[in-house]
Amino acid sequence: MNANIGVRILLFLLVSGVIAIFAFIACIIIVLFGSYKFYIPFIIFITIGILFAIFNGFFKVMNRKLQHKVVIIYLVIAILSIVIHEGINLYEKGLPTLSNTEVDLSEYQPFAKDSNAVKLDETASFKIEGNPPIMDGATALYPVYAAFAQATYPEKEYDAYDSEVKSSKTPYAYDNLINGKVDMIFAAAPSPNQLQKAEDKGIELKLTPIGKEAFVFFVNARNPIEELQLDEIKGIYSGEITNWREVGGKNDSIRAFQRPADSGSQTTLEQLMGNTPIMEAPHEDVVNLMEGIIEETAAYKNYKNAIGYTFRFFSNEMLRNNLIRHLAIDGVQPTVETIRSGEYPLTSEFYVVTAGSDNPNVEPFIDWILSDEGQSIIEDTGYVPISESGR
């Protein structure tokens, strides 16, 4: 009798070991391909159920009728869990996002047929002779400097992502400038990290302000909140304010999305927060077979309880997303008029940034950008010029 029990225990342990190995392999595969936050606990749940069924097979702790009921309940729970999880995934994948990747910059490509880039009424008084400066910059500013190129550069095709007039987004544009791959970039002010990269290379970045723009915060259009105070913004992004009810909204948690480090909007948020620490951002799990598990700042998703930020022109003109609403800050809406007057409290300058290029056209080109013609292009594009002399 005891020997028989010992054999059953040994067999149970052997079978359990094999099942545990398969469960471990399944967990590794899940980690490599994603959704591990749900499916690893799910695999553990299923494994426990299988082990219990095997244990009951060896030791008969419950009768067959009861075991069948338990198995059915277990399967129903497992199936419902998957259905609910995948349903939530489908819903979240269907949420509109606010991301630079959604913009087709070819719509503003200089000299392209039906380009949306602004055109001067008359031929520009300045024309590039010889090698044109290689320009790079923020996605949101591409329409501006593409129009500069259209007015002054030799006419030809300039690919929006690989030419003398390209946009590789703010972080990469600064890297390209610091590494001498471009002559100038159009962007918001550099982050401390970007300044440090330049210093490490022995390079001094020269920032020439050429226009003004509003840094805006936005929420889902169904969110009843229409304005926030600057102190409330700081409270939200420091993690002190966690529920919309605390700022006059509904009883719902706040999902405060952020942008990647060194992007223009993230640097602007950091400047706004000053010495107030920024809380950890919501994360999405990006799993890659070569890189393993990588956590990165989530692109803004339009959850009903979300808040995000960007620049006014980008969301108003380039995305035209009517599912979000810009918030008034300290009672002031972000408009061209409030930017121009300085009434909107989160007005900031944007720059043409150089790093000592030896291209002889760089300085004359910047002088032209600051002229009436260059400033009129900035205004006609939808930004506020740094100088009012253009009008």
Explain what you see.
The chain is α+β, with helices and mostly antiparallel strands and 391 residues long. The chain has two domains: 2-93; 98-391, 3-Layer(aba) Sandwich (D-Maltodextrin-Binding Protein, domain 2). The chain has twelve helices and 14 strands. The protein has helices at residues 2-33, 36-59, 64-93, 142-152, 170-178, 192-200, 230-238, 264-273, 312-319, 336-341, 362-369, 372-381; strands spanning 97-98, 135-137, 184-187, 206-220, 227-228, 255-256, 283-288, 292-297, 300-301, 306-311, 324-326, 328-329, 347-354, 384-385. The strands form four sheets. Strands 2, 3, 4, 6, 10, 11, 13 and 14 form an eight-stranded mixed beta sheet that branches. A two-stranded antiparallel ribbon has the order 1-9. Strands 5-12 form a two-stranded parallel ribbon. Strand 7 and strand 8 (292-297) form a beta hairpin. Helix 4 (142-152) packs across helix 12. It is elongated, with a radius of gyration of 29 Å. The protein starts with a helix and ends in a 6-residue tail after the last strand. The model is unreliable at 285-296 (pLDDT under 50).
